[in-house]
Structure formats: C-alpha cells, structure tokens
Design brief:
With about 250 residues, the protein is of the alpha+beta class. It contains eight helices and five strands; from the N terminus they run H-H-H-H-E-E-H-E-H-E-H-E-H. The protein has two domains: about 60 residues, no CATH class; about 180 residues, 2-Layer Sandwich (60s Ribosomal Protein L30, Chain: A). It is elongated and about 85 Å long. The protein starts with a helix and ends in a 7-residue tail after the last helix.
Length: about 250
C-alpha cells in the first residue's frame, strides 16, 4: 500500500507539472476545476460563466508573460512614432536644442540632455525649463507606454579640475540625486508603470569627452535616457554607449 500510495502521488505531481507548463486559459482552468470537484459543477459555472470564449483565447491569473502574444507590428509602429515625436520636441526646444541629442538604434532610443537643460551646476533642483521639458516628454510617452520596455535615467557629473578627481561622496551623490529627481518627476505624472523606470548614477566615471577644457567638461555633465522597446533583446550599457558615442567612451 505504501508503494502504491507513493506511485499515485508521483503521478499526480507529474500531471500537475505538465499542466503548469502548458498554456493556461479559461476553458482549461474550468475543466481542471470540474475534474477535481465533480459535485460542484453549479458553483464552477458561477465562477467561469463566459461560454463564448474558446480555448486559448484568454489567460487566467498566474499565467506567465511568455503566454501572452504581443502585436509586434503595433509596438514597432508606436516606437517609431515615439522617436519622431521626440525629435519634434527637440526642434521646438529653441536654444536648449543644441544641448539635446537623440539617437535611435535597434530597439532603443537614446537621449542626452547636456549641461544645464535640467539643473544648475552642483545642484539637483529641477529647473523650471527642465520641468517644462519633462512635461512635454511625459505627454509623448503616455499613449505609447505599452511599446516601452524600460526607461533608464543615467546621471553624470564632470571632473571640475582636470588634474584632481572630485570628492567621491559629493560626486556620486550629485549624479544619483539628479537621476532620481528626473525619474521621480516622470513617476509622479503616472504615464508609465513605475517598475519600468530605473535611475542610475555614474558620477564622473563615464565621461564622453576629456576634462581638459570647459567645453568638454560641459559635455560630461549630462542626464541620459535609454528607452528600450517592448520585446527587445537587452544589451549591456557598454554596447549602447558604443553605438551612441563610439567605442572610446566605454569604460
């Protein structure tokens, strides 16, 4: 009897495993519940009562993301539209446009906001012009948020003295607060799932220009946004940097 009981238990576990890795839909769920509760058909019909749904049409809670089919053509179209609208936003920025760069690659859009677009020197207080810029940015991504996998906000500083590195604590805190402030502002607009917003800080340690002249140091003081497309194969940050700035900028 013990051996028989063990065998039955193992078989039950085996079939539960098979069911768990199958594509779960509403009809399958109803059939499973009925098979386990043959005397409760009436109650089951009250739980699942949409008899017009065919097998495979609808997922039930607990289904994995892999079970969902994405309309990739629609996502591609929305992401292309996002890039075009961001370019239009840059053109409308007036004098600030010279400090904004927007590039597009395979499955991503990369925006660089240099120097004082968002912040004054040694400050993480968002400027009024920066708020207006982010208001327009959030208005653009609001209807297109389903096509966005993630928005990474990357904060950077520049070495003030070409021969002397910045104070590490101050340097990293400043870049971290700048990235966090921008991420929080977008979050508060409630236009995208907060889990898609990520802020990171690099201080002076990912420069895109030397520290030798004021003009080059201004290029290094920047906030970047890396916007990736839903369903895109994720790359390392170095790969994105190589495509946007060139291989010499990766650390």
């Amino acid at each position: 009897m013990d051996t028989y009981g063990d065998m039955v238990t193992l078989l039950l576990c085996f079939f539960v495993l098979l069911y768990s890795i199958s594509s779960t839909d509403q009809v399958k769920w109803e059939n499973l519940v009925k098979s386990l509760n043959p005397n409760a058909a009436k109650e089951i019909s009250q739980i699942v009562n949409d008899v017009d749904i065919e097998a495979g049409e609808q997922d039930v809670p607990g289904g994995s993301r892999l079970d969902k089919s994405y309309d990739q053509e629609l996502i591609d179209e929305q992401f292309d539209s996002l890039y075009k609208e961001l370019l239009a936003l840059k053109e409308a920025a007036g004098d600030a446009a010279k400090d904004i760069d927007i590039s597009k690659g395979d499955g991503y859009v990369f925006i660089t906001y240099r120097d004082s677009v968002f912040f004054n020197g040694d400050s993480w207080v968002l400027l009024e012009d920066g708020r207006n810029m982010l208001d327009q940015f959030t208005a653009i991504i609001d209807p297109l948020s389903d096509s966005i996998e993630q928005i990474q906000i990357l904060g950077h500083t520049s070495q003030a003295n070409p021969d002397t590195p910045n104070n590490v604590t101050t340097d990293r805190s400043l870049s971290a607060m700048r990235g966090a402030v921008v991420a929080a502002y977008i979050h508060e607009k409630n236009v995208i799932d907060p889990s898609k917003l990520v802020s990171s800080a690099f201080g002076q340690f990912r420069p895109i220009a030397p520290f030798d002249t004021p003009e080059n140091r201004a290029k290094n003081r920047r906030v970047e946004m890396l916007i990736t497309k839903t369903g895109n194969v994720e790359k390392s940050l170095n790969e994105y940097y190589e495509q946007v700035y060139g291989p010499k900028t990766t650390q």
